[in-house]
Amino acid sequence: NMGGKYSSALELWLAPGDSEMDAVQNKISLQKVEGTTADLHPDFSVKDVGYNPEIYVGDEVEKGGLRIKRDGDGKPVKPVFDVNQSL
User: Fold this and answer.
1) Are 25 and 80 in contact (CB under 8 A)?
2) Is 14 helix (H, G, I), strand (E, B) or coil?
3) Apex 48 CA angle, 45 and 52, nearest 5
4) What are the CA-CA distances from residue 47 to residues 15, 42, 43, 72, 75 (Å)?
5) Lower CB density within 10 Å: C or N end of the chain?
6) pTM, entire model
7) What span, in angstroms and rounded, lies between the C-alpha atoms of 24 and 31?
8) Between vectors from CA 82 to CA 53 and to CA 32, what angle results, nearest 5°?
9) What distance in Å separates the CA atoms of residue 48 and residue 18, rounded to the nearest whole number?
10) What are the pLDDT digits (tens) for 35-61?
11) Residue 22's closest CA among 61, 63, 68, 57?
């Protein structure tokens, strides 16, 4: 149960740590977070959460930024692919 003006439309999905490239390459699925703050373990600390959202401005709103697509179960909707690596 997130608060705020847009809370009814927000969903939170998790990926393993340091998995940004695997997510981009469709190698991993995401896990949907279910529940409320009442479900948090008593020794939970927000300091244990690594969340740094990207804020899109200008043309990035429509054309840029990191975006990945998943189905309702968090699975990639496109096949796995490799990223070209050049020096």
Assistant:
1) yes
2) strand
3) 120
4) 18, 14, 11, 29, 28
5) C
6) 0.69
7) 15
8) 40
9) 15
10) 777 788 888 877 777 667 777 888 888
11) 68
Question: What type of residue is 69?
Answer: K
**Could you identify the residue written with the tokens 């991993």?**
28
The per-residue pLDDT for range 53-87, each reduced to its tens digit, is 777 888 888 887 778 899 999 999 999 999 886 65
Residue 2, amino acid: M
User: Which residues fall within 8 angstroms of residue 27, CB to CB, at 6 or more apart?
Assistant: 76, 80
For residue 76, how far is the Cα from the chain centroid? Answer: 12
State the pLDDT at residue 75: 98
Report the amino acid identity of residue 83: V
